[in-house]
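Q: What would this chain look like folded?
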Amino acid sequence: MSQGPPLAGDDMESASTKPTPADSSATKIRISNVDFPEREQMAAWQDVFGRHIVQTEMTPLGDAPFRWEVVARSLPGLGTITAATKHGFLATRTPALISAGSDDLILTLMESGGLVFRQFGREIAAGVGDAVAVASVEVGKVNTIAESTLGFVALGIPRPALAPVVHDLESRCVKRLATEPLALLRHYLGVLQDEALAESQELQRVFATHVHDLVALALGASRDAEEIAKGRGVRAARLRALKDDIVANLHRTDLSLDAMAKRHRISPRYIRQLFADEATSFSDFVRSQRLVRAHRMLGSPRYEALTISAIAYDAGFNDLSNFNHAFRRAYGRTPSDVRAMSRTDTGTDE
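A: My prediction, written as C-alpha cells:
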C-alpha cells in the first residue's frame, strides 16, 4: 500500500510519507470505518491507517464509537492525507516505526477540531486554521484536544527538497507559521480535485514543486529561495485563487480588475501579469467563463424556465446584443440554437 504523510509529533509521532519515485504517477486510496465490520473498525483504524499509512501507534481516548474517513494520495515528491474522525485519540511515533518510515517533513493543516503536537521538547496546541510542522524521523506524540469532530490535511514532503531552502528545518517544527503562504497553500490544494492532475505526471511534478514553494515560505525560506518561490509557487497559487474567485462571482456585474485586486490585496498590474503569463487577460478570462456558464445553463433542463436574456444576465452579461455576438463567436451557434439542440437531445421538444 502506498504510504502517505504521518500524523506526527515529538513525543509526537507523525506518520511519514514515503517518497514517490520521480517517474511514478499519482495514486489515491480512500478508506472509512464503514468499509469494515463494526467489530473490526477500531482495529482497522489502528492497523491500516495508523501502522501502514501514517506509521504511528493509535490509541483511542474514551469509549465513544469511532468514526473515520481517510483519503491518501501519493504524487511525485508529495504525499497528502485528508482525514476526518469523530473520536479522541493519541498517536505515538516510536523508534521502531521511524526505522520503517522515510525522511519527510509533515505539515498538518487543521480544518476542524484541535490537536496537541509534541516534538523536540516543544508542545503546541493547534485549532481551526492553524498549521504545524513536524519531522517524521523524530519520536513524538499528537493527541486530540477533545472527543469531537476532527478534520485535517497532512502533507508529507521529503526533507531533502526543503533543507536547501529552509535553514535548520527542525527549529521550524512545532511552532506558529507564517499565515499568508498557508492561506494560499490551503486554496491551492484544491488542484488535487482537478481531473487533469490525475492524468498528467508533468502536472503532478509542477503541482508538487509549487506546494514545496508555499511550504518553504510558511516555514521561513532563505532570501534567494523566497524570490524563486514568489515567482513560481506563489504566482500559481494566486492565479488559482483569482480564477476560483472569478468563477464564483460571474453573476456580479461589478466584477472588475480593481475590485479583485482590492479583495486579494495585490495590485491590478500584478493580476494583469498573471493572466498575461497564460497568454490571456483578466477581461478575456471573465468573458470566457461567463460564456461557459451561459452555455451550460442553456443546455441544462434545470434552467428550462429561464429566458435566454435571463440566463445572459445571470452569467454576468449586462448587454444582450454583446452576449449574442460573443456566444456565436465562441461556439459557432446562437444561444437559441444551443437551447433547441438541448431540447432535442433530452426529448423535451413538443
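Residues 152 and 236 are 23 Å apart (CA to CA).
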